[in-house]
Write a structure and sequence with these properties.
Largest sheet: 7 strands, antiparallel
CATH architecture: Sandwich
Helix content: under 10%
Strand content: over 45%
CATH topology: Immunoglobulin-like
Number of strands: 7
Distance between the termini: 82 Å
Length: 136
Amino acid sequence: MRLVLSTLPLLLASGCFVYTDGPAHHAGPPAQVAPIIDWADASCYRDEVYHDDVWWFEADVLDANDDVVAVYADVYDGDTGEWVDAFELYYDGGNTWYSAWQERSTWLDCDYYDYIVDFVAEDTLGEGEIYSLDVY
């Protein structure tokens, strides 16, 4: 009993009182917004270990809801506008999505310099954005 009475003045001396007049009211979850592709790039390089060229695709995707489920790179021929190939990018930490593909597994040619790459990011509701990039 003596311990309880001796700590009571310390509790009262802290000067911290919390008053409440009912349950807390929250604004609710943030409104659903589509993801935004902040930056993207694509290119090709020679990999001497595999004796093949490698295409890589990278995109930084911002999303206030953190519900991005897929990021793709659709490649078109810059001369004809025809679709050439598509690649899925994989989450690589932070805001970054990335993938690399050996050229022999694609329809792309590292010696051809007129591709257009459309990066597409989709969230859980199917909303998204397209970021277009010319690869020379």
